[in-house]
Amino acid sequence: MYAERLSRLQSELRQRQIDCLALIPGANMRYMTGLDFHLMERPTIGFFPKDSKPVFVLGALEVPRIKAAIESGSLYEADVVSYTDAEGPDLAYEQAMMGLPEIQRYAVEYLTMRVMEIKIVQRHVPVAAMQDAGPVMDVLRLRKSSEEVAAMRRAIAISEGALEDVLGRLKLGMTEREIANMLTLAQLEAGGGVVPFEPIVLIGPNAALPHGTPGSRPLKNGEVLLIDFGTTSGGYISDITRTFFVGQPSERDRAVYEAVLAANEAGRAASAPGVSCQDVDRAARAAIDDAGYGEYFIHRTGHGIGMEGHEGPYIREGNPLPLDPGMAYTIEPGIYLAGEIGVRIEDNLVVTETGVEILTTFPRNLRTLDL
């Protein structure tokens, strides 16, 4: 699998006339190697030339893992250059860069590469032109394989089971932070891996903050409970949001919920191979506009999911990218009335040859919690 990914990467580099791509620990490195190195004060960089084998420079304590992967055949052939804490990284990077073909254009991860790694590269290829590696890696990662989708299904099943478990144990007076901790533990106990982000659990007017942080607000009757959470399985994530009411909602709050539900349904219904990302966004947005809450839908309709919580494709206005089989993403419209209420309903989808598969199955209908 990793040899095939390397072949695709090098083909893309040649097409774009990029001589070398540099990756640091993170999702892209994990995608290309299957190895999860720590991002720390010891710089680790993988160099991927367009026509020759990769070169990895890393601290000595990381060498056994990558050499074992190469020797077992699970990873392609690569040169490994290491350094100890006493030696420091400078000579190792000098040796590695001298062994690479001539570099006139290279790509680095604009979103994640730190100044430390960029300066290392620039010291050794000072006159080379630098560009973003993001578009290159997007070509590889946008379309998920059946194995990748299966991993996401497992993550989603773990999350959905954990959510139902936690809902059954809620009591009035529990705080946002307590519920978030319960949810994290429930996912771990059900077999989930490292959570891709801390659960967003918000009660009452706090739910009007799309990325609010769980705090000390307690559950009480007459208020909304918004839960946005996920887990990982095999390195792939789930990302689900559901909104509940403690006791019966007011007529206005019910109308807000139904508008978001209609937008969620519209976004899912509009999704299909060949449809542009912005047209899916427009479909979801139109439902909220029609209900009179358009100004309170303040973010894009969705984002890609896979090894990261936010990756391509982005379901937003201004993105004409057509959906292709294998693309996985969220549909998550929301309405946020500051100081009053927030509602969001988020599902995970993958495009198929003939339509889309809705990976999330947790019910979306308005649900009240009688605590």
Which SSEs are present, and which pair or pack?
Layout: H1 2-15, E1 20-23, H2 27-33, E2 45-49, E3 55-59, H3 63-72, E4 79-83, H4 90-98, E5 105-108, H5 115-124, E6 129-132, H6 134-141, H7 146-167, H8 176-189, E7 200-203, E8 224-229, E9 232-233, E10 236-237, E11 240-246, H9 251-270, H10 277-290, E12 302-304, E13 311-315, E14 328-331, E15 334-337, E16 341-344, E17 347-351, E18 356-358, E19 368-369
Parallel strand pairs: 1-5, 3-4, 5-6, 11-19
Antiparallel strand pairs: 1-2, 2-3, 7-8, 8-11, 9-10, 12-13, 14-17, 15-16, 17-18
Describe this structure in words.
The chain is elongated and about 70 Å long. α3 links the parallel β3 and β4. It folds into two domains: 2-141, Creatinase/prolidase N-terminal domain (Creatine Amidinohydrolase, Chain A, domain 1, 3-Layer(aba) Sandwich); 146-369, Creatinase/methionine aminopeptidase superfamily (Creatine Amidinohydrolase), CATH 3.90.230. The protein contains ten helices and 19 strands. The longest helix has 22 residues, at 146-167. Strands 4-3-2-1-5-6 form a six-stranded mixed beta sheet, sandwiched between helices. The protein has 371 residues and is α+β, with helices and mostly antiparallel strands.
